[in-house]
Amino acid sequence: MNKQSSRLRRAKRTRLKIRDLEATRLTVYKTPRHMYAQVTTPDGAKTLACASTLDKELRKKLKTTGNVDAAKEVGALIAKRALEAGITAVAFDRAGFAYHGRIKALADAAREVGLKF
Q1: Quick one: which of 10, 40, 71, 80 could link to 102 by a disulfide (CB 3.0–4.6 Å)?
Q2: Closest-CA residue to 83 (of 63, 110, 59, 57)
Q3: Distances in Å between the alpha carbon of 56 and those of 26, 48, 53, 66, 105?
Q4: Are 42 and 25 within 8 A, CB to CB?
Q5: Could you report the per-residue pLDDT of 21-55, keeping only the tens digit for each?
Q6: CA 22 – CA 33 distance, rounded (Å)
Q7: At what angle do helices 102-113 and 68-84 cross, to 10 degrees?
Q8: Regarding beta strands 25-30 and 47-52, do their DSSP bridges make them parallel or antiparallel, or are they unpaired?
Q9: How far is it, in rounded angstroms, from Cα 68 to Cα 64?
Q10: 37 dihedral zone (left: phi>0; alpha: psi -120 to 50; beta)
Q11: Smallest Cα–Cα separation from 81: which of 37, 45, 43, 42?
Q12: In the chain, where does DSSP find H-type helix?
């Protein structure tokens, strides 16, 4: 097993558990350069809100897009957009990534704005 297949196996296990709970899902994906977050329906068929470091309003604010500060901004923006869409509670899907660094910063920022998970 390589690093990517191990991560995808962890992600699959998490997504199956979230599907059993039938909860709205906040999914996070990271690359070395960018962070992406989206809120989807429990079955994953429809995206209800999304945010990333590629958004125009964030690109103007951020000096670099692959660090913890950028992740905090994405977390705050996704929480704001989810609350505007009427979503207050989600299940956090970290896509198999370890819960530290940029993933943790995004989650903490989303919680500070008012999203519950």
Answers
A1: 71
A2: 110
A3: 21, 19, 8, 16, 21
A4: yes
A5: 999 999 999 999 999 999 999 888 999 999 999 99
A6: 32
A7: 40
A8: unpaired
A9: 10
A10: beta
A11: 37
A12: 3-21, 56-61, 68-84, 102-113
- What pLDDT, on the 0 to 100 scale, is given for residue 1? 80
Joined tokens for residue 65:
């897009």
What domains does the chain contain, in order, with CATH numbers?
A: 3-113 (3.30.420.100)
**Cα gap 30→25, rounded to integer Å:** 16
Q: Is the pTM of this model over 0.85?
A: yes
Tokens, residue 23: 């909860």
Quote the DSSP letter at residue 63: S
Q: Which sign, positive or negative, has the C-alpha torsion 77, 47, 4, 96?
A: positive
Q: Is 18 exposed, middle or buried (0-12, 13-18, 19+ CB in 10 A)?
A: buried
